[in-house]
Design a protein that fits this description.
Radius of gyration: 17 Å
CATH class: Alpha Beta
Helix content: 25-40%
Shape: globular
Bound molecules: ligand LF53FM6H
Number of strands: 13
Order of helices and strands: EEEHEHEHEHEHEHEEEEEH
Distance between the termini: 8 Å
CATH topology: Rossmann fold
Largest sheet: 9 strands, mixed
Strand content: 15-25%
Number of helices: 7
Strand order of the largest sheet: 4-1-5-6-13-12-11-8-9
CATH superfamily: Class I glutamine amidotransferase (GATase) domain
Length: about 250
């Protein structure tokens, strides 16, 4: 069988006077090496893109993390300067993309901002600046110029017994990195909590009764995919889902 194709969502970045549609290399490498699939960056061209035509030709969607935040207007709150930066073109692309991928049963793996987008796309809400909420810990990255330090393992997570994540990772406790200041609030339609941090922050979700594989983490397995067991297993499981979808899609 030829390799499966995975759409990878893109940030819009102004560089050298141009707008670039970009995805961080660690996500692309993780799809390539961890899922054994070909990553294809989907530009954030919003309503100009025929998403169904794009989804017709692929076997999975990876929704990436980003420093930008989902615009709160998309879940009924007011945007503020402190809550930014925003990326309206990314929002205008990823929200309908994720909704449509889920409806069609295209396998989805959503990471950090990607998990927040999935939640909002399915009607959920987000909490912001969670480090300022009583009882919550600081989930932001340590301030450092070194990415290894920023992506260092930060806290344990508790996996829901009998859930989809437990099927992928087993019941052994493990620890994750943490680079976010927002978190899921009200859950989107059909989402189930798959892991929690000690302070109650939702760390992973899946979609119950979904026609396809849908898993999302608030942490970043892409960063340690070659060295960390749970990170490796998450991308391998996504790879299995996209291969199974491809066989079905192509009638193999
Ligand atoms: N902006 C949101 C989403 C967090 C996220 O995707 N973080 C990745 C950032 C990578 C980096 O800092 O280099 C939030 O803050 O919750």
């Amino acid at each position: 069988m030829t390799k499966p194709l995975v759409l990878v969502t893109a940030d819009v970045k102004a560089v050298d006077g141009y707008n670039w549609h970009a995805a961080v290399s660690t996500y692309l490498q993780a799809v390539l090496k961890g899922s054994d699939a070909i990553p294809m960056i989907l530009p954030s061209l919003g309503p100009d893109l025929d998403l169904d035509a794009a989804l017709d030709q692929v076997d999975g969607v990876l929704a990436t993390g980003s420093r930008s935040n989902v615009n709160p207007q998309l879940y009924g709150r007011e945007p503020t300067e402190e809550n930014g930066p925003y990326d309206p073109d990314r929002d205008a692309t990823t929200m309908p993309l994720l909704k449509r991928a889920v409806e069609r049963g295209v396998p989805v793996f959503a990471i950090c901002r990607g998990m927040q987008e999935l939640n909002v796309a399915l009607g959920g809400t987000l909490l912001t600046e969670i480090q300022a909420i009583e009882g919550r810990k600081d989930h932001r990255a340590p301030v450092s110029e070194h990415q290894e330090e920023r992506f260092r393992i930060a806290h344990p997570v508790e996996v829901t017994a009998g859930g989809s994540l437990e099927k992928v990772l087993g019941a052994e406790p493990f620890e994750v990195n943490s680079l976010h200041r927002q978190a899921l609030g009200d859950l989107g339609n059909g989402l189930t909590i798959e892991a929690l941090a000690e302070d109650g922050t939702i760390e992973a979700v899946s979609l119950t009764d979904s026609p396809g594989y849908v898993l999302a983490t608030q942490w970043h397995p892409e960063y340690w995919v070659t060295t960390d067991g749970p990170s490796k297993r998450l991308f391998a499981a996504f790879g299995e889902a996209v291969r199974a979808y491809r066989e079905k899609r192509l009638g193999l």
